[in-house]
Each structure stands twice: as C-alpha cells, then as structure tokens.
Amino acid sequence: MSQREGSLEDPQTDSSISFLPHLEAKIRQTHNLARLLTKYAEQLLEEYVQQQGDPFGLPGFSPPQLPPLGGLSGPAPSHAGLPVSERLRLDAAALSALPALLDAVRRRQAELNPRAPRLLRSLEDAARQARALSVAVETVLAALGAAARGPGPEPAATSAALSTANSAAGVFSAKVLGLHVCGLYGEWVSRTEGDLGQLVPGGVA
Description:
The chain is mainly alpha-helical.
C-alpha cells in the first residue's frame, strides 16, 4: 500500500508525531493480531470449500455474485484513498458485523455438514476473533482520539438479512452465502492488517 505524505490522519509519515510507548505497543499488537487472523481466514475459506463438495472445489468454479448482506460488502476500491483513521473506522464497523454472520453460517453448516466438526469450530473461532479484532481496532482509534465506530451496517441487521436468506435458500444457495461470508471475513481482516500497517512506527506493513 502506498504511503501518502505526512498528515494527522497518517501519523507514520509525520516526523513531528511520536507515539507514546503504550500506544505504539497496542498498535503493533493489534497489527500482529490482524496478520495472524488473515492467515486463519485463508485456512477457513479453504476448509469451507473442501466441505461443500462439487462444484465448489472444481477448477474454474465461479460462484454467483451476491448483493451486500444487510449493507455489508467487501472493502470498496476507494477505501485505500481514505485517511487511515477513516479506514480503521470502516474496518471496525465491518468486523463488528461479521461475528453474527459467521454464527449464522455455522448454524446452517451444522445442518448441512453435521460431520464436519472442525469447520464448525473454525467458524466459531472466526466469529470470536473478528469480535476481538474489532474491539482492538476501536481501542487504537480511541487512543488516537478518533471516533471508535464509523458508519456501517448494524450487526443485528446483517444477521437478520443472512438468516432470512438462509431460510429461504436451497442447499446450493445456502452454501454460496456461506462462501460469501467467509470471503468477506478474509477481505476485511486482510484490509485491517494493511491499514494498521500504515500506523506501525517505521512503516512495517
């Protein structure tokens, strides 16, 4: 990710700004968590695909595009052009909506794949980890003096949207919905990792 010239919204590039030791440690800790969850998200997506059967694991399979779930979609192309604090507000809002969606996917997978306990545990872990990362990002924002929560979908709204879609969907459509949610989880934790990397002193991303 390219670095813009120094501003209050991009502290790493302004030599006049020095982080307090505890804030620097919190930023590094949160960045490391996001980096770890990015790897876990890749594993979750791979495991999810493996458990869905054909055609999900076939080369060249392209799932149908879905509209945003309760207003939650992947990071927009314009995301990278926003100030770092605004990006993190959007990251935190998306991450706070994901646990309810991941829980809904886990419940549906428990019906479709009851003999896949590892996948069910991974979905449960992902929901907990997304919640923890959201809280950690909000803590960083608060320490920076930024608003903790940016505009974004309400968790209850996104969960209700997925539950409604799940209940009305056939098996294939329900599996596609789950794939979409796992993909969103990966996109947002990866985006959060990149955004936090802009705040790590020294520019380590």
